[in-house]
Amino acid sequence: MKSRESLVRLKEFQVKEKRRQLAQLQLMMSEFERMSKELESQIAVEEKKSGITDPNHFAYPTFAKAARQRSDNLQVSIRELKVQQDAAELALEEAEAEYSKAAALEERDNAVRMRA
C-alpha cells in the first residue's frame, strides 16, 4: 500500500504546485496593472504639461508616446496572462479532483486494513 501513499503525496504536491503557479500568474497580472496605471498617470501629467493630448500631433511629447506604447504592451501581456490563468485554474481543478480520488482510495484501503 506504499504506492497509494506515494500517489497521494504526489497528487498533493501537484495541487500545491498548481496553486503556486496560479498565485504567481495573479501576482504578475496585478503588478502589470499597477505599472500600467502608473504609466497612464505619467502620460496624463506629461500631456497636461505640454497642453497636447493628441498622440498624432507633431509636437506630442516623446515621453508620453513611449509611455503609452509601454502601457499598451502591458495591457497585451495582461490579456495573455489572463488566458494562462484560465488554463491554470482548469489544471488546478483537475489536479484537485485527482487528489480527491487518490485520497479516497487510500482511505478505503486503510479501512479495509483496519477491519482485517
TrEMBL record:
Coiled-coil parts of chain: 15-108
Record has Coiled coil as a keyword: yes
Annotated SUPFAM superfamilies: Tropomyosin (SSF57997)
Keywords carried by this UniProt record: Cell projection, Cilium, Coiled coil, Flagellum
Record's protein name: Flagellar export protein FliJ
UniProt organism field: Shinella pollutisoli
